[in-house]
Amino acid sequence: MGGLAALAREAGHKVTGCDAGVYPPMSDQLRGLGIDLIEGFGADQLALAPDLFVVGNVVSRIHLTDGTPKFPLMEAILDAGLPYTSGPQWLAEHLLQGRHVIAVAGTHGETTTTAMVAWILECAGLRPGFLVGGVPLNFDVSARLGAGQAFVIEADEYDTAFFDKRSKFVHYRPRTAVLNNLEFDHADIFDDLAAIERQFHHLLRTVPGSGRVVVNGLEESLARVIHAGCWSEIRSFGAVVSDFTAAGDPQEFKVLYQGQVVGQVKWALTGVHNQLNALAAIAAAQHVGVSPEVAARALGSFENVKRRMEVRGRVQRAGASITVYDDFAHHPTAIRTTVAGLRRKIGPQQRILAVFEPRSNTMKLGTMKAQLPWSLADADLAFCHSGGLDWDAREALASMGAKAQVGDTIDDLVAQVMAQVRAGDHILCMSNGSFGGIHLKLLQALQNK
Length: 449
Prior knowledge:
CATH superfamily of the largest domain: Mur-like, catalytic domain
CATH topology of the largest domain: UDP-N-acetylmuramoyl-L-alanine:D-glutamate ligase
Shape: globular
Number of domains: 3
Radius of gyration: 22 Å
Strand content: 15-25%
């Protein structure tokens, strides 16, 4: 919604927005664009008298225990009969018409891959528009209209709004659709994996015959989606028999297209998951005329997205630095690949202290709590924030023994980490929220230690 607000502002509209607990980097970006942020969802905002209310999917008709609505502004809009729409529908009707839309979908990596595609097209001189669910470091903004024909968008399978339960991405009508991967997630709105696969197939139904579907050849779930029906050109990546494959270490590898070397990527990113993201981005860019060689070269200068293995600070101790990272990982598979990527980068001798909070709706429900020990296998120590959970994090992590600790508050977590940290350690903080500012608290505690 923040990126959408930025696009509306760039298109010449006067834009304001309201939310609860807005935090950086999006809050900083919006204020820098001159977009007023209002805390909360009070009905008094009707006095702003906008031409249209664009409603995000956080808004619901839920009423609190005392009978008052959680979102009084929405109730006031409905009572007054004022015009409103969803973010994806507004995008489709006002910004995406006539553009070559490249939509990047998947359970993991869609933000990073979207940023990769945008950067490749930028380096190729195509001046793309884009909407990314984060802030790409190469652009330092999450969204722009662009001057070219292509528009790259992160395509989320979460539902559109309380009044439109379709997945967001069915509104975008892409000519190039990237299916990065597909696992069970969003347990608050999907009953099982088959329900998500159905939504992905709805996305395929909107891709024209002259379009392209870029699909991860390693995913059985996506094979089922394709098997249900695909009417467009297919290009696969990742598997040995795929169209696009990689040879070499994830930080320096050759790109092969149908068995022939067509480029080489050498960059600072870590992990096999980012290598796969790169192949997906290269395959998508090829569909709008960017050769794999040019795309691979562009990725050499790709700087990732804020809050993706972002170094928040280093503190020198006993001749070695302690590094604090911030990462958006929150699904068990994302946690596992993030930790594994850092392990591969630093080697077996240095320690990883994984600090995380199960904050997503799926994790809060406890749907995937049994996978947490598996996801943290490459960490030396793990520290879990249990605030706001309805399930027992200590029980879920019991199989890890002394390797795992649980803190009920952020301050408890900081104290636990400080009692264990050594010179040379890497403290990896993972959350899809602000995590109570734990990164700065850890750095301050390290400075004072």
